[in-house]
């Protein structure tokens, strides 16, 4: 795949969705961090249902701590792995208060030092909350990058690094949202909907389908 084709791909994705964003519901950087922590192996819809009950009661680190571990678990028990997620969120809230004055930090190093926050989560926060050009490679982006040949790689870090090199700068800020949404709704895992894909003629996938 060459640079001209990549530019056209992202041009079309932008034309199709000029202002992409996460489907998680959030208003503050802490709400976003909480939602992303809860989203591992869970759907955004499921997380949004839980946070709709949680955030009106507790949407700050101190508010979460005031709930207590059992109270937090009760609010998020509809989400998979809620026990470990509650533990990590409580520990994260302690560290945010102790080290960052209750604010979510805007550096990768500080974010990845928080319990339950890995590279992908840090990239989401840096990009979505703080506007930094990062690439949060999840299963959708990994699939789309390899299938289309935009940035093929054997693992998520390799794909991330290639995307950061090859995505045109004009599109870098929003690229990971476009790719996630494309993988979630069009370039789906089992039978990609190539028939309704806005980049079908540019995609280098060899086994295209006619599904719309």
Automatic annotation (TrEMBL):
Swiss-Prot/TrEMBL catalytic activity: 2'-deoxyribonucleotide-(2'-deoxyribose 5'-phosphate)-2'-deoxyribonucleotide-DNA = a 3'-end 2'-deoxyribonucleotide-(2,3-dehydro-2,3-deoxyribose 5'-phosphate)-DNA + a 5'-end 5'-phospho-2'-deoxyribonucleoside-DNA + H(+)
Domain HhH-GPD: 38-185
Pfam families: EndIII_4Fe-2S, HHH, HhH-GPD
Residues annotated to bind [4Fe-4S] cluster: 187, 194, 197, 203
Record carries keyword GTP-binding: no
Database matches in InterPro entries: DNA_glycosylase, Endonuclease-III-like_CS2, Endonuclease3_FeS-loop_motif, Endouclease-III_FeS-bd_BS, HhH-GPD_domain, HhH_base_excis_C, HhH_motif, Nth
EC id: 4.2.99.18
Cofactor, free-text remark: Binds 1 [4Fe-4S] cluster.
Keyword field: 4Fe-4S, DNA damage, DNA repair, DNA-binding, Endonuclease, Glycosidase, Hydrolase, Iron, Iron-sulfur, Lyase, Metal-binding, Nuclease
GO molecular function, one term: class I DNA-(apurinic or apyrimidinic site) endonuclease activity
Cofactor(s) listed: [4Fe-4S] cluster
Matching HAMAP family: Nth
Stated role: DNA repair enzyme that has both DNA N-glycosylase activity and AP-lyase activity. The DNA N-glycosylase activity releases various damaged pyrimidines from DNA by cleaving the N-glycosidic bond, leaving an AP (apurinic/apyrimidinic) site. The AP-lyase activity cleaves the phosphodiester bond 3' to the AP site by a beta-elimination, leaving a 3'-terminal unsaturated sugar and a product with a terminal 5'-phosphate.
UniProt similarity note: Belongs to the Nth/MutY family.
UniProt protein name: Endonuclease III
């Amino acid at each position: 795949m060459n640079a001209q084709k990549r530019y056209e791909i992202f041009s079309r994705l932008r034309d199709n969705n000029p202002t992409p964003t996460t489907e998680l519901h959030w208003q503050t950087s802490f709400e976003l961090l909480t939602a992303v922590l809860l989203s591992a192996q869970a759907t955004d819809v499921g997380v949004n249902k839980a946070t709709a009950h949680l955030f009106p009661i507790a949407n700050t680190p101190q508010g979460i701590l005031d709930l207590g571990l059992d109270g937090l678990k009760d609010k998020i028990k509809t989400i998979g792995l809620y026990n470990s997620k509650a533990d990590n969120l409580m520990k994260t809230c302690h560290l945010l208060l102790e080290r960052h004055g209750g604010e979510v930090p805007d550096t990768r190093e500080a974010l990845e030092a928080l319990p339950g926050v890995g590279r992908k989560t840090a990239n989401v926060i840096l990009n979505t909350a703080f506007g930094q050009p990062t690439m949060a490679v999840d299963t959708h982006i990994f699939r789309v990058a390899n299938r289309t040949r935009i940035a093929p790689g054997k693992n998520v870090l390799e794909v991330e690094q290639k995307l950061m090199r090859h995505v045109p700068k004009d599109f870098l800020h929003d690229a990971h949202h476009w790719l996630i949404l494309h993988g979630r709704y069009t370039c789906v895992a089992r039978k990609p909907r190539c028939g309704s894909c806005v980049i079908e003629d540019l995609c280098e996938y060899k086994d295209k389908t006619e599904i719309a």
